[in-house]
Specification:
heterotrimer; A alpha+beta (about 375); B mainly alpha (about 50); C mainly alpha (about 525); A: about 375 residues; alpha+beta; Immunoglobulin-like; Cytochrome Bc1 Complex, Chain D, domain 2; five-stranded mixed sheet; three-stranded mixed sheet; B: about 50 residues; about 75% helix
Chain lengths: ~375, ~50, ~525
């Protein structure tokens, strides 16, 4: 997008938001239009359907604002003129007039007219939102909510992206709006999101895409979008999912189809390299596993068990000196691979042998646990 | 817990009868307006299978 | 009329019991009404304190005050205490006090059950507060971090405090169903001779509809949470997909209760307005019949549009279209109610005492909340609003004016009748203005937060949301503190003040104003004849 175009877009956006605030705060106590840059309306849409949703949002808001002003107008007129202190005599027969006898028909018919206008417009957009395309070249992205991170599976490319929040030290101003691995999507291609969850309810929400759908364990819900501009779009989990609900940002990076193809190739290369490393028939040293384990632990386990290994009892038990991680290796492997039912501890069996070996080794030796155990990938393979 | 006798026996009977009807309505909704018992029986049934 | 004469004489033999027996064993509708109102006032402050903590935490980005689970626990408790502890008992208190006096009945139809339905409440409240407190003790399990909606599977993860909560909900449900049965029986069987259903005061009509709604939907909630209890402890899987259940089923059961619940909270206050506005406009209620019709329509449509709280669960196109159109149609009867209120004020001779100020504020602000409700009903747009702060702003704009301000209006309107003293009008007006201004500063900016992308129920937020959260929290402090003034006014009025006449307000109409202020312990022992 050229600079001028962006400027125009920005301007019209500001104009829209400015007029919007103007309407909204009419008669209210503060009218600070300079707030526009802090966001008082949806961000500019990045998809055609999102644009239509934005338009219907503006339409209903305008209709309701007009209705509100009509009601306010009548009430304030009445409050001013029909008061006893002005000597106004109450009209005791007002409810017996023609108007009084027939208003119960007139008013509902008028409201019905407004309702049908809104419902009619909404219905057309609704059909588009709900009608998920079934084309051949559609990009399928399976979105899985976890406590508390997102997993994005590109089903057509066999790529998996794990997306977690970035702590405040590294993300700075974008804290709670920044992730370590973004959801990279191409423009100009229809994308189908398949939402599901591994544990509790979550909801995928990116305002620019106007996509929000619940992730329900055991069920798959679908939505779709076709991005029409490049950019970085930020959203958050919208359905209360437990302790760190606030730490589930979603960052969509919209890129051109060429860049997307390059990104896919990169991801595949990384995956191949990782698989080669894991399957290499090698005995790993304690130091190697500890180094790998720390990185993995801090991203995957620390949300609950904390970097310090102290956990957040009683919900999330501490690992420092705990009976589980200093006891038999088999039980430790089993709980990591299979999880524990009825608790927030989920199965991590989808990690490869090397990763699990590294995490378990790290947990058994970090924070003064010092069991000296070194768990090899081959041990993990056996335990599965 | 003494109640002043302001209700005639007829009125009192009428009141208690209506109260039971309404209470029955509440219990009816508790039991039937959602798949509680069907679900329970289904689950009990499948779990009892060998 | 031999029987009434007999009863009349007998009533005098029953002296008013004194001491704690008067309250614990009370079968008197006025005393039980007072108990309900006091209970609601205490709960209002407990629920308000939790709201203050929530707003203080959100004052600045970052986690300063509350750890995330405690924050979520407060969110849960704020909602449950305000709905089940404050608003519903306060409305029941008004019903207990006013319905027998309004319809010329000596007492509620089933006085002993009346006693029971109140005294279940303190037990339920204890359970509710225990569910909040238990996790602080060793071995108390995790805090309830689910919000009041209690959606599984999250609610299955929670520790034993969830069981306390489930039993608290059962008790609260039993209490409201019993109270509703009592109110319906009273209204249908105990009206003074000559008073028909269509000449009965509007407040009675609203409670008749509310009571029926309660009987229909509260058992469904009870069933839903029972299934949750079974899932948690007895190995069933109603809501567990792995065992053949469906997590969404709970949402349907919950909102089948939850949506009519909105009207349960709302309608008694609409009833209060139907008395306050005509009294201070010195003009009869405009459109009594259409009001009754609108109310019945709201109740009926309200029962069948619950899934608009769950647009994002992945329903079929047909289902969402139905729920969208049904929801938008609710604006017709609600619009008619608002219209009737405005038409009652129109060409009246208005004065603006505190109850009327609240009534006018309700008409304006409830319209605002109702209109943002129309926006939320539009499914495609709701794909954006859903579970954002916009929703929080919307339902507070509906429930604060629609329910709580209505109760405030009712309390100020009838306080002279109950206590025999006029409240301090200046203080009342100060309370009104701080309350309403504080409310608007708190919740108006939350619309913007939601549109800008802030989800609800998050303990920590990005700094882009700071400005409006600061404004909102400052408003919340004003709003919260203003309620101390309410407490002061109520205590002051009970202790003394200008003597209230039996017809405390110039334009007040109805049987309750024929009685002394304060009324005798037993009133209408001889039924009045309605012409």
């Amino acid at each position: 997008m050229s600079a001028t175009q962006q400027l125009i877009n920005n301007q019209s956006y500001k104009l829209k938001t400015a007029s919007l605030t103007g309407i909204l705060v009419a008669g209210m106590f503060f009218a600070d239009i300079s707030r526009a840059e802090y966001g008082i309306n949806f961000p500019p849409p990045a998809a055609d359907v999102a644009q239509e949703i934005y338009d219907i949002h503006m339409l209903t808001m305008q209709i309701t604002t007009v209705l509100l002003l009509i009601v306010f107008g009548f009430v304030f007129y009445s409050l001013y003129y029909h008061r006893k202190s002005r000597g106004f005599q109450a009209d005791q027969n007002f409810h017996n007039s023609w108007f009084g006898n027939w208003s119960w028909v007139v008013v509902p018919v008028m409201v019905l007219g407004v309702d049908l206008t809104i419902a009619g417009k909404a219905d057309a957009v609704l059909k588009k939102v709900w009608d998920v395309p079934k084309e051949e070249n559609i990009l399928d992205v399976k979105v899985t909510g976890h406590q508390w991170w997102w997993e994005f599976d590109y089903l057509d490319h066999d790529i998996k992206v794990e997306s977690r929040y970035v702590p405040e030290k590294e993300s700075g101003d974008l804290y709670l709006r920044e992730v370590d691995n973004r959801l990279v999507l191409p423009t100009g291609q229809k994308i189908r999101f398949l939402h599901t969850s591994a544990d509790v309810l979550h909801a995928f929400w990116v305002p620019e895409l106007a996509v929000k759908k619940d992730a329900i364990p055991g069920y798959v819900t679908e939505t779709w979008a076709e991005l029409n501009r490049e950019g970085v779009f930020r959203g958050q989990c919208a359905e209360l999912c437990g302790t760190w609900h606030s730490r589930m940002p979603i960052v969509v990076e919209s890129v051109s189809p060429q860049q997307f193809a390059a990104w896919v190739d990169d991801q595949k290369a990384i995956k191949v390299a990782a698989a080669a490393e894991a399957s290499a028939d090698k005995t790993w040293s304690l130091d190697e596993l500890m180094a790998k384990g720390k990185t993995l632990y801090d991203t995957k386990c620390a949300a609950c068990h904390q970097v310090s290994g102290m956990g957040l009892p009683p919900a999330f038990p501490g690992l420092k000196g705990s009976a589980m991680v200093t006891g038999p290796i088999e039980a430790h492997l089993e709980i990591v691979i299979k999880g524990k039912e009825g608790t927030a501890m989920q199965p991590w069996g989808s990690l490869n042998d090397l990763e699990i070996a590294a995490i378990v080794t790290y947990e058994r030796n970090a924070w003064d646990n010092n069991t000296g155990d070194v768990v090899q990938p081959s041990d993990v393979k056996q335990a599965r | 817990m003494r109640v002043p006798r302001y209700q005639t026996p007829e009125l009192r009977n009428k009141n208690v009868r209506l109260a039971w009807v309404l209470g029955g309505m509440a219990i009816f909704f508790l039991v039937t307006s959602f798949p509680f018992w069907t679900g329970l029986f289904r689950i009990v049934g499948t779990q009892a299978m060998p | 009329m031999t029987t009434t004469t007999l009863n009349h004489d007998e009533a005098h033999h029953h002296d008013m019991p004194t001491g704690w027996r008067r309250w614990l064993f009370s079968t008197n509708h006025k005393d039980i009404g007072t108990l309900y109102l006091l209970f609601a006032l205490i709960m209002l402050f407990i629920g308000g304190a939790s709201a203050m903590l929530i707003r203080l935490e959100l004052f600045q980005p970052g986690i300063q005050l509350l750890d995330p689970d405690l924050y979520n626990n407060l969110v849960t408790n704020h909602a449950l205490i305000m709905i089940f502890g404050a608003v519903m008992p306060a409305a029941a208190g008004l019903a207990n006090w006013m319905i027998p006096m309004m319809i010329g009945a000596p007492d509620m139809a089933l006085p002993r059950m009346n006693n029971l339905s109140f005294w279940i409440l303190p037990a339920a409240a204890t359970m509710l507060i225990l569910s909040f407190v238990v996790p602080f003790f060793p071995g108390g399990g995790t805090q309830i971090n689910t919000g009041w909606t209690l959606y599984p599977p999250l609610s299955v993860q929670v520790g034993m405090s969830m069981d306390f909560l489930i039993f608290a909900i059962h008790l609260l449900g039993i209490s409201s169903v019993l109270a509703s049965i009592n109110i319906i029986v009273t209204l249908l069987n105990m009206r003074a001779p000559g008073m028909t259903l269509m000449t009965m005061p509007m407040f009675c009509w609203t409670w008749l509809v509310t009571a029926f709604l309660l009987i229909l939907v509260v058992p469904v909630l009870a069933g839903g949470v029972t299934m949750l209890l079974f899932d948690r402890h007895f190995g069933t899987s109603f809501f567990d997909a792995a065992g053949g259940g469906d997590p969404v089923l709970f949402q349907h059961l919950f909102w089948f209760f939850g949506h009519p619940e909105v009207y349960i909270l709302l309608l008694p206050s609409i009833g209060v307005l139907s008395h306050v506005i005509p009294a201070f406009s010195r003009k009869p209620l405009f459109g009594y019949k259409s009001m009754v019709g609108a109310m019945l329509t709201v109740a009926t449509i309200g029962m069948v549009v619950w899934a608009h709280h769950q647009y994002t669960i992945g329903m079929s196109l047909g289902a969402v279209t139905y729920f969208m159109i049904g929801t938008i149609l609710i604006s017709i009867p609600v619009g008619l109610m608002i219209f009737n209120f405005i038409a009652t004020m129109w060409r009246g001779a208005m004065t603006f005492e505190t109850p009327m100020l609240f009534a006018v504020a309700i008409v304006l602000m409830f319209t605002f909340g109702g209109l943002s409700g129309v926006m939320l009903a539009v499914v495609p747009a709701d794909m954006q609003y859903h579970d954002s702060m916009f929703v929080v702003a919307h339902f507070h704009y509906v429930l604060m004016p629609g329910a709580v301000f209505g109760l405030f209006a009712g309390v100020f309107y009838w306080l002279p009748k109950w206590t025999g003293h006029m409240y301090d009008e200046t203080l009342g007006k100060i309370f009104f203005w701080t309350n309403v201004i504080g409310f608007n500063i708190t919740f108006f900016p939350q619309h913007f937060l939601g549109l800008a992308g802030m989800p609800r129920r998050i303990v920590d937020y990005n700094m882009m949301f700071t400005e409006f959260n600061v404004i909102s929290s400052i408003g919340a402090i004003i709003f919260g503190l203003s309620h101390l003034l309410l407490l002061y006014i109520v205590i002051k009025t009970i202790r003394g003040g200008k003597k209230a006449e039996s017809r405390a307000w110039e334009g007040a109409k109805g049987l309750e104003w024929e009685l002394d202020s304060p009324p005798a312990f037993h009133t209408w022992t001889v039924a009045p004849q309605i012409k």
